Amino acid sequence: MAKTLFDKVWDAHVVKQLEGDIDVLYIDRHLIHEVTSPQAFSELENRNLPLFRKEKMVATPDHNIPTKDQHLPIREALSKHQVDTLVQNCEKFNVELYGLGHPFQGIVHVIGPELGITLPGRTMVCGDSHTSTHGAFGAIAFGIGTSQVAQVMASQCLLQSKPKTMRITIDGELKQGVLAKDIILYIIAELTAAGGTGYFVEYAGPAIESLSMEARMTICNMSIEMGARGGMIAPDQTTFDYIDGREFAPQGKAFTKAVEQWKTLKTDEGAVFDKEYHFDAADIEPMITYGTNPGMGIKITKPVPVSLGEGSQDSFKKSLSYMGFEPGESLLGKPINHVFIGSCTNSRIEDLRIVADYVKGKKKADNVSAMIVPGSKQVEKQAKEEGIDQVLAEAGFELREPGCSACLGMNEDKVPAGEYCVSTSNRNFEGRQGPGARTLLASPLVAAVTAVEGKIVDITKHLN
Amino acid sequence: MEKFKQVISTAVPMPIEDIDTDQIIPARFLKATSREGFGDNLFRDWRYNSDNSPKVDFVLNSDEYSGKILVAGRNFGCGSSREHAAWALHDYGFKVVVSSFFADIFKGNALNNGLLPVQVSDDFLASLLEAVSENPQTEISVNLEAQEISFDGHREAFEVNAYKKECLLNGYDDIDYLVSIKDEIEAYEASSIVI
Ligand code: SF4
Q1: This prediction's pTM
Q2: What is the pLDDT of residue A310?
Q3: How far apart are CA A171 and CA B182, in angstroms?
Q4: CB A323 less than 6 A from any atom of ligand 1
Q5: Which one of A24, A145, A250, A269 counts the least CB within 10 Å of its CB?
Q6: Which atom of ligand 1 is nearest to A342's Cα?
Q7: pLDDT tens digits, B171-181
Q8: For A75, phi and psi rounded to 5 degrees?
Q9: What share of chain A is helix, strand, coil (3-state, %, to 5)?
């Protein structure tokens, strides 16, 4: 029978099936960080259980670390305690840890791929919803809660009911200035923030195939913002080239053999999805969000809607009043005082290059504070090797050390209450970037142009 | 995990859609390394001003509404996978959340912590919200065994996965089961080609 990519990978990982449509799903790799793992380690200890497969785990601190002076002890006591607890737990249970200062440290979803831990056909989980990022390689990757982190620690398995499948095909060619971030913001705006709930999404079509691995990761990363469990893209030559030679990827003959197997990981002709959508790349333009969930996105040149078709008008009004916007108004010309470039959505080397290319020889506007936080130590190192740090410094951008930073405002990197931030992160929820902060999600290119102009503009008029 | 059978209680209405886990428990309160105490910061930024004084118009600060059941708008629990959201609701004293739609990860986290997500139709939700708003003393009954929610003569059946229902009724959790099938997991590892 013709199978989808998702079915192939899922079915290969079912240890056994239980009544009530529940599968015992085997997990190949488990990534952990400081915020959602401490209670799971305590759970194991309380129950006197050993760690079942420590060699299938990797840990790194990212959510709750400063992005300045990482060589110094963390000042904030609770954050320090949480990061220290991760270090102690990893020592006690003998788990591989890329701690602060380690050349492999970074945002958990940035380091997995760049170290060759993320591979096609694998199942991967992490106590973080953006684990969907790794699906860009043709892996099944999804976020889990802390109880499930403990389950994977104790058994390398999870009890899961199989999600439904959805395919989103994007035909045609992308216009100039349209990046992966615009594609996914467009899709979420079309499907709404709950439109993918219960589904695992495969992204396909010529516009997706033309993308780099970094761009594919941006798309899969935000699958969760439409409620989907995860997203995936069939591996192809772009994928294999990216993996080749990475630290923990198969090497030499083993790599050649693996590629042969990975080539089988694609949806068979005639396979049936529970839901299908088709979009045309030519309809996608640079996007920005105006509201307080990622489904509230518009083409940057279009006005804020007057109402939302589905759902209650009260929630829509509440959202606009939080943002300080009026129904039907245009965002063009709105002054913006903060620009944040970072997060597991857009902090890879390609994102930094896009920003550097645009701002080279320009200066940020005086009213803007522009912060750029690389996704990992390796990204940071490469940016320095390529001279990107110089370009950014000359343009007045502040390059920080790797971490989640203002994506979730857990450390001191916050946007002040009431102020606007154009951010390359993935969530514009109330208070996400700090209490009262107003977030507008956009691509790294839109963020770079906004930083230089000091306000929202039609970026297509600013490109060469 | 404690056993869950039936809850009969008044309810707290929150007719807002897309309530995300960043609202339920903001990230800056996720620094604890134990599971306790999150209820104090449940809905922190909706509940308190920046000087920590309570916001009088927020429902958790009202004298009128209280109870073990939270009734919320559709797509409850979207966003971050933080289980702290389920811990905060449970720690505050909620045993049931009623909505017309739940985000996946939140639903799983709630079930793993003895907090029952009850998904009802849009119409049922609308009449329930209306009844509770009009009369804060409205009593709602949620019966897990019978998979039924009722108030004032209205009733509706709700779905819950058969395995999860057993777990809740008996207070079991998934770890107990997974550890008990270790031999089968090892047999899978020995036979599988995945790396
Ligand atoms: S960068 Fe943001 S979204 Fe990504 S893992 Fe960190 S907190 Fe989560």
Answers
A1: 0.96
A2: 61
A3: 46
A4: no
A5: A269
A6: 1
A7: 988 999 999 99
A8: -75, -40
A9: 35, 20, 45
